[in-house]
Structure formats: structure tokens, C-alpha cells
Amino acid sequence: MIDLKDVEGRVVTGYHNDVLTYVGPDEPQDQSQIAVGLFGRFRRRMDDTELYIVHVRTSRGRWPQRK
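Above: the chain sequence. Below: its structure as C-alpha cells.
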């Protein structure tokens, strides 16, 4: 977990250095390190399961559309 200097809140790190999840200063109510870490992991899991890809662009242009 990373405490931010210029912004309120924390950043929860993940399995990769480039995967970061911002947790605001008012979420969750319990601001202990374990609660904030679990909340960040919960948010990351929601992104993984509930969001869907709407557009992908590569160096070769758009991927073919499904028919």
C-alpha cells in the first residue's frame, strides 16, 4: 500500500507494479491498513468481473469486429 503525499487517500498495489487501485480517504470507514487493502482488492476484482472491453486499438489499427 502506498500513502499519497499530495492527495488524500491511498493506493493499493497488486500482483504487478503497474496495477494500482486508488482508495479514497472516506472509503472504507475503517481506515486500518488491512481494511483499505481488502477494499482495494475488492474494487480491482469488480473491475475484472463486471467491466467489458468496448474498443481495442493496436499499432496495426483496430481489431476485426465480430459479425
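DSSP finds one helix and five strands in the chain.
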